[in-house]
Amino acid sequence: MKTLQSMMRISALGSVVAVGLCLTQQAQAATGICRALNGTQQYSFPFNQVFTDPAVNVTGKIIENAAGNNWSGGPTYPVTCDCPSPPFMSESYISASSPLMPGTTPINGMQSYILNDYLAVAAEVWVAGANPAYVAVPFQNRSNGLTGNTGQECAKWNYGSGSQGKITLYFRRPFVGTQVIPSTTLVNVFISSINGVSSPTPAATVSMSGTVTVPQSCDINPQAITINFGDIMSTAFQKAGQKPDNFNKVNQKLTLACRNISDGVKIDLSFQGTPDGNDNTALKTTNDDIAVKIEDASGNVISPNNGRLPVNMNYTGQVDSSGVTEMNLYPINTTGKMPAVGVFNSTATVRVEIQ
């Protein structure tokens, strides 16, 4: 008997598939930030002015290009930039701002910045390049106008933005004497290689310092004021806060001779004395029960501690001008007690205040 054998051939077909892993690295986008290679470039210029014309010393007076050529001629400084297409760059963008407090009054259409109670400034920075110009601060992303292959190297290129500029001076209010301007940072300059990018560190700063002097003066006549109340009976001091019975106030006229005071400037006389302990509106004397009241021509009481006596000025439009004022003085009882018999004295200093 034949046996039928069944045979099965199993064929296994395998394949090794090679998987190719394609790895690519994407280049990081340029930040556009620029910085000074040797640290922020420091520019400074002196500003010392003397104004003898009284027409200058008025609120709102504007002095254009007040620093003259003082803010100019500074060195260039090397800058490195993170450029979009290194190793060269075309346009760069300049921005400038001021750390000073902005003023509320524009100066010739420019933003003003406060130096002190009396003075403010506006600043313009020179931006070089294809379209050089003085640009009023603040400004953002001012192009230097250079396009195409300019040869500017991203790694290092010399800039001069901030090395020169102009300031316009503004009188916020008149003053007498000298205003000292300590070293003050006026402008910070920033550079970028991409429009709209704000670099975190200034490439350059500009500082100014100096003085502004207005040589004004006012002399009071008489310079030594002596008021003699005469003999007063102690029994005449009846009530606290009241002058003696039947006592007539002593009138004292004062004249002023002033120089370099322009029309519209307000002049006052201020008093510096010791107020009485019982009535601080009156001037203390050597008698504990008596003080001296000071009034203006209208009967308003003038405080002995920085009280103001207004002056009527005669402005002639010339360098010299004059003024006149008057005051009334009288003793008062401050305690309600009968004052001790004897001489009493009191002193105060009178100063000219120009506002």
Question: Could you characterize what this model shows?
Answer:
InterPro entries: Adhesion_dom_fimbrial, Adhesion_dom_fimbrial_sf, Adhesion_dom_sf, Bact_Fimbrial_Adh_Pro. It is found in: Fimbrium. One of its GO terms (cellular component) is pilus. Keywords: Fimbrium, Signal. Residues 207-355 form the Fimbrial-type adhesion domain. There is one protein chain. The chain is mainly β and 355 residues long. 0% of the residues lie in helices and 41% in strands. A hairpin with a 5-residue loop joins strand 19 (283-284) and strand 20 (290-296). The model is unreliable at 1-27 (pLDDT under 50). Strands 16, 17, 19, 20, 22 and 23 form a 6-stranded antiparallel beta sheet that branches. A 5-stranded mixed beta sheet has the order 2-15-14-6-10, with no helix packed on it. It has strands at residues 34-36, 41-50, 62-63, 77-81, 88-89, 93-97, 113-114, 119-127, 133-136, 139-143, 152-153, 157-159, 165-171, 177-192, 204-214, 217-221, 250-259, 267-273, 283-284, 290-296, 305-310, 312-314, 320-333, 348-354. The N and C termini lie far apart (142 Å). The protein has 2 domains: 34-214, Sandwich (Immunoglobulin-like); 218-354, Fimbrial-type adhesion domain (Immunoglobulin-like). It has no helices and 24 strands.
List keywords for this structure.
355 residues; mainly beta; Immunoglobulin-like; 6-stranded antiparallel sheet; 5-stranded mixed sheet; 41% strand; disordered N terminus; Type 1 fimbria pilin; fimbrium; Adhesion_dom_fimbrial; Bact_Fimbrial_Adh_Pro
